[in-house]
Design brief:
Strand order of the largest sheet: 2-1-3-10-4-11
Helix content: 40-55%
Distance between the termini: 74 Å
Structural class: alpha/beta
Strand content: 15-25%
Largest sheet: 6 strands, mixed
Number of helices: 11
Length: 336
C-alpha cells in the first residue's frame, strides 16, 4: 500500500469515526431533550385489568399524584380482556415516547412463561420503568373451618386427599400456581377450583363453598377484620404491617414459600432511556413522600420506586422462578 493510499485510508477511517461519534452525541442530546420536555401532552396509564381491583385503585392514585407532579393530565384507561393481553399489546405497539404506560402486576411474569402465542414479546417489546410497590398476601379460610392455624390445615388436608378445594382466580393464574406449589411443598392434595377473578372467589369463600384461597391484604383483610373469613398465614416471606402477629407460611413449616403481590410500570420498547429514568425518578420521589407512603400503607402496600435497571432484573428473576414452578408441576393454561 502506497503512502498516499495509507493516508487516504486513515483519513477516511477518522472521518467515519468522527461521524459516528457525532451521531451518538446528537442522539444522546435528542434523548436528553425529549426527557427535559417530558411530558409534553397527556400521559395515559393503561390498566390491562378490569376496574374495581387492586390495580385500578393503585392506578387512580398514581394518575392523581403524577398529574400534580408534572402539571400535565395523567389519565387511567382500562383495556381489559384476554387475560390482560389486550391492554399489554396496546402499549407494546404504542409510540415509544413515554406518554403511554402500562400498569402490571405479578401476573405479568406468569403470563410471559405460561403463554407462547402472545401477540407481543414480553421481554423485547416492553421496557421496564419502575417496580412501584409490593403488597402482602395471605391464605384465608371460612371462620367455621375446624383448622385454626396453618399447620392444622396441612394436617387436615393430608388426612383428606382431594376433598378440600383450593380457590384460584383462573386456570394459569398466579393463584393457580400458588395452589400447585402448596400441594407440592406441603405434601397435600387439594382440588384446584378456578374462578373468573378475585370477586367471585371471595364470594364463595365467605359463603363457605370452598376451603382455602390466597388473597391480597387489600382484598382479603377487610373480610378477615369483619369476621367473615379467617387468616391462616401470611404468604410473603415477611409479616405484614397490617397484621404483624400473623405468622408467615415460611415460619409455619414451608421455608421456601414466598409470594408478594406487586405493581410496576412498563413502557413501549424504544422509549428513550432518559425518559424512562425521569418517570422512574418521579416514582422514587413518591416512594419517599410521607402522604403517599401512608396512603398505600393502609392497603397493605410498601412503596419501592426502583430504577429501570433494577426492575428489569426483578422481572427476569420472577419469570425464571415461576417458569421453574410451571415446568415442575406441568401446569397448563386450561388445566383443571
Amino acid at each position: 500500500m502506497s503512502r498516499y493510499t495509507l493516508a487516504l485510508t486513515n483519513a477516511l477511517s477518522n472521518a467515519l469515526l468522527a461521524a459516528a461519534v457525532a451521531s451518538c452525541i446528537s442522539s444522546g442530546a435528542m434523548a436528553q431533550a425529549s426527557a427535559a420536555a417530558f411530558p409534553s401532552k397527556t400521559v395515559t396509564l393503561i390498566s390491562p385489568y378490569p376496574p374495581g381491583g387492586g390495580p385500578g385503585g393503585d392506578g387512580r392514585v398514581w394518575a392523581q399524584k403524577l398529574t400534580e407532579a408534572w402539571g400535565k393530565p395523567v389519565v387511567l384507561d382500562f383495556k381489559a380482556g384476554a387475560g390482560s393481553t389486550i391492554g399489554t399489546n396496546y402499549v407494546a405497539k404504542a409510540a415509544p415516547d413515554g406518554h403511554t404506560l402500562l400498569l402490571i402486576t405479578a401476573g405479568f411474569s406468569v403470563t410471559a412463561v405460561m403463554h407462547t402465542d402472545l401477540p407481543y414479546d414480553p421481554v423485547k417489546d416492553l421496557a421496564p420503568v419502575s417496580l412501584t410497590h409490593k403488597r402482602g398476601a395471605l391464605f384465608v379460610v371460612h371462620p367455621s373451618s375446624p383448622y385454626k392455624t396453618f399447620p392444622e390445615f396441612v394436617a387436615y388436608a393430608k388426612a383428606r386427599p382431594g376433598q378440600l378445594n383450593f380457590a384460584t382466580t383462573g386456570a394459569g393464574s398466579i393463584y393457580h400456581l400458588l395452589g400447585a406449589w402448596l400441594n407440592s411443598a406441603a405434601g397435600i392434595k387439594t382440588t384446584l377450583v378456578h374462578y373468573k377473578g378475585s370477586g367471585p372467589l371471595l364470594v364463595d369463600m365467605v359463603a363457605g363453598r370452598t376451603q382455602i384461597a390466597p388473597t391480597t391484604f387489600l382484598s382479603g383483610w377487610p373480610l378477615v377484620a369483619s369476621g367473615k373469613l379467617r387468616a391462616l398465614a401470611t404468604i410473603s416471606m415477611e409479616r405484614s404491617h397490617i397484621s404483624p402477629d400473623l405468622k408467615t407460611v415460611a415460619e409455619q413449616g414451608i421455608p421456601e414459600f414466598d409470594y408478594s403481590s406487586w405493581g410496576g410500570l412498563l413502557a413501549p420498547a424504544g422509549t428513550p432511556a432518559p425518559v424512562l429514568e425521569k418517570i422512574a425518578g418521579q416514582f422514587a420521589t413518591l416512594a419517599r413522600d410521607p402522604a403517599t407512603v401512608e396512603q398505600f400503607k393502609k392497603t397493605g402496600a410498601v412503596l419501592i420506586g426502583s430504577t429501570p435497571a433494577e426492575f428489569r432484573k426483578y422481572i427476569q428473576t420472577e419469570i425464571a422462578r415461576w417458569g421453574r414452578l410451571i415446568k415442575e408441576n406441568n401446569i397448563q393454561p386450561e388445566a383443571d
